[in-house]
Amino acid sequence: MRPIFLLPLLSLALAAQGAPEAPKPQAPAAAPAQPPSAPAMTPARPMMPTPPAAKPAPIPEDQVIARIGKRLIHEKDFLDWLKVAAGKRFDQVARMPNGLANARNQYLDIQLLAAKARKERLQTTQDFLKMQKVQEDQILSQILTNDDREGSEAQKVKIKAENPTEEEMRAYLEKNAQRFETPEKFTARHLLVGLKGAPKVGEKGLTDDEAKAKIAKIQGELKAGRPFEDLVKEYSDDPGAKASNGLYKDQAYGGFVKEFQDAVRTQELGKVGEPVKTIYGYHLIEVDARTPKQPATFEAAKDRIKQMMLPERKEALRKEFLEKTRKEMDFVAGADAAASLPKAAPAKKAKPAAK
Q1: Would you say 62 and 106 are in contact if contact means Cβ atoms under 8 Å apart?
Q2: Are residues 77 and 203 in the same domain?
Q3: Are residues 212 and 240 in the same domain?
Q4: CA distances (Å), 148 to each of 86, 144, 153, 349, in order?
């Protein structure tokens, strides 16, 4: 939980950690008067690893780190500020090279400027009072919704969101079954003879007659006993599949052109089928295996279900918390808000005093 008004200055300290050093300008090299001679050979020296920079020793919390007039500022004052300003990022800042040192400098700048502002009585100005009101509302809402605050309603909402019941998870699986099932897959090897002007082939491709003749030649070598894998290496025009000898292993349907997929679904397993024409050219395909779609079991998908439910549950429970708070606080928004005020009971007339 971080008050918003502290973020701009702190963010400067965090950003400074990753800011690259500005390159130093180099003087232009003078043109050599003569052609340079070959460099002299020097004995090679072993590369010595650069020792890691020593981490600065922590500053004791009771140590004074600054003084403004008669006021002493201790390390504990800075650490207390940083724990609020950085929130959950406190450890991240502390682990950064010079992270604490840079944040400490930012803190001391804030203290210095704030002290001068108080000296000039800026805390009594309308500007300060308006900004203070805005920040007060923001800080109170952040504290209320801080899910790390022990015993808070926000923490209970977080715990509930992160721990759905088995019944809720089973209902989610039933509603979203397709998101968890294993899709239908295939393993196949293919050889492509590309057509002129086709995608991925371009002008290197063949005319339709030339492609058919080449396919017939390959089929002849296949019938003569030459392994299909060897033919793929020699003849295939598919650059993506050539490195794997044309093998597509455990591929889900949907990422291939229709004609190719139809052939993969229907061809006899373990045999090279008849040529299949697509927008790329002519394919020879050998289907090794087809794996049917597998529905997800609850036990296998339980962890994924819990993870995928979390954003939806957080949002639903957040809205539920806001709606509950609206009712509790009698909150009404919109143009009719004033009209919804409960009408005050009419004042009773006082009885006349007895004479």
Answers
A1: no
A2: no
A3: yes
A4: 14, 10, 10, 54
HSE-up of 109 (CA within 13 Å, CB side)? Answer: 12
Does 252 lie in the same domain as 124?
no
Confidence of residue 18 (pLDDT cuts 50, 70, 90): very low
DSSP 149-185: STT-HHHHHHHHHH---HHHHHHHHHHTGGGTSBPPE
Bridge-based pairing state of the strands 247-252 and 276-277:
unpaired
Tally of structural domains, the chain: 3
Measured at the CA of 62, the angle between CA 61 and CA 64, to 5 degrees, comes to: 105
Whether residue 6 is found in the same domain as residue 124? yes
- Return the pLDDT at 137: 93
Whether residue 43 is contained in a domain is answered as no
**Structure tokens that stand for 189 in this block:** 């090897």
Q: DSSP letters along 241-285, please? A: HHTTTTEEEEEETTSS-HHHHHHHHHSPTTSB---EE-SSEEEEE
Name the most confidently modeled range: 39-53, 108-122, 245-259.
108-122
The encoded tokens of residue 334 equal 């919109």
- Residue-wise pLDDT for 280-313, tens only, equals 999 999 999 999 988 888 998 999 999 999 999 9
Closest CA to 298 of 172, 164, 183, 184: 172
Same domain membership, residue 9 and residue 117: yes
The pLDDT of residue 27 is above 50:
no
Buried b (16+ CB within 10 A) or exposed e, 215-240: beebeeebeeeeebeebbeebbbbee
Question: Which two structure tokens, joined as six digits, stand for 348?
Answer: 């009773």
CB of 104 closer than 8 Å to CB of 96:
no
Residues spanned by the domain of 118: 1-16+60-134
Longest dimension (CA), the chain: 134
Co-location of 100 and 209 in the same domain: no
